Description:
CATH class of the largest domain: Alpha Beta
Order of helices and strands: HHHHHEEEHEHEHEHEHEHEHEHEHEEEE
Number of helices: 14
CATH architecture of the largest domain: 3-Layer(aba) Sandwich
CATH superfamily of the largest domain: Aldehyde Dehydrogenase, Chain A, domain 1
Number of domains: 2
Oligomer: single chain
Strand content: 15-25%
Largest sheet: 6 strands, parallel
Number of strands: 15
Helix content: 40-55%
Structural class: alpha/beta
Amino acid sequence: MSDIVDVEIDADALIAAMGRRARVAAGVLAGLSSSDKVRGLEAMATAIRAAEAAILDANAVDMASAAAMGLSAAMLERLKLTPERVAAMADGVATIATLRDPVGEIIDTTERPNGLVLSRIRVPIGVIGIVYESRPNVTADAAALCLGAGNAVILRGGSEAIESNRAIHAALLAGLDAAGLPIEAVQLVPVTDRAAVGAMLAGKGAIDMIVPRGGKGLVARVQAEARVPVLAHLDGINHVFVHASADPTMAERIVINAKMRRPGICGAMETLLIDQAYPHKEALIAALDASGCEIRADDALRTIAPVLPAASSADWDTEYLDAIASAGVVDGLDAALAHIAAHGSHHTDAIVAEDATAAERFLAEVDSAIVLWNASTQFADGGEFGLGAEIGIATGRLHARGPVALEGLTTYKWIGRGSGQTRP
Length: 424
C-alpha cells in the first residue's frame, strides 16, 4: 500500500525519484509475457471490487468537499462514484485483460536486395505521465491500459478527487502485489500542489509521454509547458448535423442522446446543425427542449421558435459540458461542412441522414478523429470502440488519433536480421 501524505516537498526531486522507480518498473513490464499482464490486470480488477466500500467512503469525502467549494453540477457528476460506477471501473480493467496484447506484434517485414531482413515490432513507450481532473475512474483506466501495453505510469489526479484516487490507487497496488508485479509500475503523485504538474511537464528523461485528461485550462497548460510529447485534445466541440433526408424519429433519438445522456463528457454534442430543407425542425427542437436542454439558437431557428435565447458568436466555439447546446439552421451539406471546419475541434462529429451519398461525403470530408453516420456522438469512448477503456481521445494527427488504448500506448522499433552484410 502507498503511504500518501500532503507535505511540502521539492516537486522536481519528487517527480525525478518517482521517474527513476517507474523506469525500473517499466523495464520489468517490457519483459512480461501476455499471460503475466493478464494476471496482473485480473488481480487489479478483483482488488477494486473488494475495495468498493473504501472507495465509496473516500468518494463521499471528496463529494462533500467539492460541494462545499461550490463546484458545478457537471463537475460533481463527473466526480461522483456509485456502486455501479465502481463495478464498471473493475469491469473495464478486466476487459483490458481480454484484449489482444500489441507488444511484440510484427507490423511489417521486408527483405532488402542485400538479404538484410528488416521488421518493425511494437514495443512499450516506457513511462507515461497522466495529469487529470475530476473523474476518479481515470486512475484505474490509465493504470490498466498502461500496464496492458507494458508501460509504467505516474498519475497526478485533481485535488477535488484526491481521496477517491488514493483509495483506488491502494486497490491497484494490492492487485499488483497479489500478482507478483512491481507496485512501482503504478504510482500516484502524493501531493496536490500544482508544482508537481510543472515538474512532470518538465520531466524529460523521467517521463516519455504526457496525457492530460481534464478541462481546457489544464490541457492548454500541458500543451504550452510540456517538454515531453503530449497526447491530448483541447476541446470537444462536437456537432450533430441533421440532413434533409434524416428519419425524424431517429434524428430526435440521436440528438437527445448525444447531448443529454451525459452532458459533461467530452463526447457530448455541443452544437446542433439542422439542414434548411429538413421538414421537421420545430419538432426536433421541441423534443430537445423537452429533454431539459437549454438551446441557444441562431436567427433562422428563432424564426421557428422565438422563445429560444439567441446564440452569441462565442457559443459556436464553446464546450459547455452541461445541458446547453447551440443550434442553427444551415443551407445544406456544404454549409454544414463549412461550419464544422470553422468551429469544430477535430474531436467527434455526426450526420443523421438516409441519403448515403451525403453521409459518405460527410464521413470523408469532416477532419475529426471520430466521424459518425446515424449514431450518437456519445459513442466517442474507448469501451464503445471495443478497446476496453481509453487513456484519452487524441485529436492530433501524429502517433495516435481518436480513443487511445493499448496500441496507442506503444511505439515501434526496427529489428534487422543479417548474414554478415556490410554497407559499401
